[in-house]
Amino acid sequence: MSLPALALPGQLLGASSTYDPGPGTHLQASNIYASLPGRPAASTPSLTPSFKSSKTPAKPTLTVTRLPSTSATADLGPVSERISNTNALPRVGDVVLGRVTRCMTRQVNVGILIVMGADTEQEGMVCAHEIQGVVRREDVRATEKEKVVVGEGFRVGDLIRAVVISLGDQSNYYLTTAKNELGVIMAKSEYGNTMYPISWKEFKDPMTGETETRKVAKPI
């Protein structure tokens, strides 16, 4: 598979049989994923004597480099390069990217930043201002809804991928994360370090080694 021009945290970049993981990536289940938003690249392996004498050819190393951004979507890093400045309002069925602004017992408040549309590969559109959305407890996941603990799935500051399921009331759009590919795509630990996903319900802090629970979005 070819490398994307830009990558989001948790996005699949390639197999470990083809590449070695480098800075900005992590290895999970024999696949290499982006750990931060940025531009992926594969470095050419250097031909050292040890490589020449080895029966196994050296593999290129995958890295992801965060690019500086001064836009309103700075926390998304270079993802802002594939986003137009056209103001947009979400529609039912649209995929949106947003930031968790408040966690309560029954719901999560989200500030919608980008409207990707129904096709996540198309160019996204930046919202002129944060549009208010809500993920209700029953819309967090598709199964065992009565067992959902909102505070275990989201934290304030998390960046999430969600789908608009209703125009809601006069102040909020109703969102859902009840699909494997929806949920938290980027999170920081309580120590302020950018974490990477290690399962469908956990992120790991690469500096401390500690894990935190989240409703993790499956890489797309």
Note down, in words, how this protein is organized.
By secondary structure, the protein is mostly beta strands. It contains two helices and 16 strands. It has helices at residues 49-53, 150-153; strands at residues 12-15, 20-21, 25-28, 31-34, 39-43, 61-65, 83-84, 95-103, 107-117, 124-136, 159-166, 173-176, 183-186, 196-199, 202-204, 211-213. The strands form four sheets. The chain has a five-stranded mixed beta barrel. It has a three-stranded antiparallel β-sheet with strand order 1-4-3, with no helix packed on it. Strand 3 (25-28) and strand 4 form a beta hairpin. The longest helix is centred in the N-terminal third of the chain and has 5 residues, at 49-53. The two termini are 13 Å apart. The model is unreliable at 69-74 and 76-86 (pLDDT under 50).
Main features:
single chain; 220 residues; mainly beta; 3-stranded antiparallel beta sheet; 2 helices; 16 strands
Describe the structure concisely for a colleague.
By secondary structure, the protein is mostly beta strands. The chain has two helices and 16 strands. Helices cover 4% and strands 39% of the residues.
Give the end-to-end Cα distance, rounded to a whole number of Å. Answer: 13 Å
Gross morphology = globular
Residue ranges: pLDDT <50 for 5 or more in a row? 69-74, 76-86
**Number of helices, counting only DSSP H or I runs of 4 residues or more:** 2
Rg calc: 18 Å
